[in-house]
Amino acid sequence: xxxxxxxxxxxxxxxxxxxxxxxxxxxxxxxxxxxxxxxxxxxxxxxxxxxxxxxxxxxxxxxxxxxxxxxxxxxxxxxxxxxxxxxxxxxxxxxxxxxxxxxxxxxxxxxxxxxxxxxxxxxxxxxxxxxxxxxxxxxxxxxxxxxxxxxxxxxxxxxxxxxxxxxxxxxxxxxxxxxxxxxxxxxxxxxxxxxxxxxxxxxxxxxxxxxxxxxxxxxxxxxxxxxxxxxxxxxxxxxxxxxxxxxxxxxxxxxxxxxxxxxxxxxxxxxxxxxxxxxxxxxxxxxxxxxxxxxxxxxxxxxxxx
Length: 306
Fold this sequence. Notes:
Blueprint: H1 20-24, E1 32-34, E2 39-42, H2 50-55, E3 63-66, E4 75-78, E5 97-105, H3 111-118, E6 125-127, E7 139-142, E8 147-150, H4 151-155, H5 166-169, H6 171-181, H7 187-207, H8 209-218, E9 221-226, E10 234-241, H9 248-267, E11 273-281, H10 287-291, E12 294-295
Parallel strand pairs: 10-11
Antiparallel strand pairs: 1-4, 2-3, 4-5, 5-7, 5-8, 6-7, 9-10, 9-12
Helix pairs in contact: 7-8, 7-9
């Protein structure tokens, strides 16, 4: 038995509804369209979100729940890959759906978090800068929820640009890849390295905002060289920068912080040896050495099993 998705699918490119594939030709990953009505399966008897909570007074079983029309944002981000939209390279297009993520206004959050969002330091939130020129707000694609729409519906939508250039818009694919590829890391790493590191970063942001901003700007990624991701016994902290070496005070902060992580792991008897930090430039690091690393993106990012 075939997939239900194939039932009724056009047998050839010519059999698709008139104009649909042609209308999809200009669409790319990262385009902005109107947000569709959103439905997800929820459990009103054990609600997690406000949407399922709103059903709790009247329903007791798990069921499809619809996001209230007043909560729907105006826009959604196309998250499907560009080649999967019009399927120009497919003799017989076999993908009837495209995926979108809602774009929400987060202008009411605190200024520090707004700055982090604009720098795309949250793995599941992606700032869409050009939309603030269309409507006042801090417009952010929420990648925690993606929703399927049939391509015939999408073909009838107007497109907006969220980024000024094609190069800038590539951040959409990069953010989605990070969501899927981020590694699962063991509890020892999370408890002895990640959580205390975030505490150090939060304290730095409160006490020395300028230095915190320079850390974000000068360290593009961080990584570990580790003997095991899930049961680490020895790891080296590696800080990756672009075409320049981090400034002395940024390096000093990382050295002092890694010293603190090392002392904490030793005092807790966690059996985890932490070495480093090591500073590497991405324009000088060899591909083979880069592949030895578990690249962790931003210290603010979360892990798949966290």
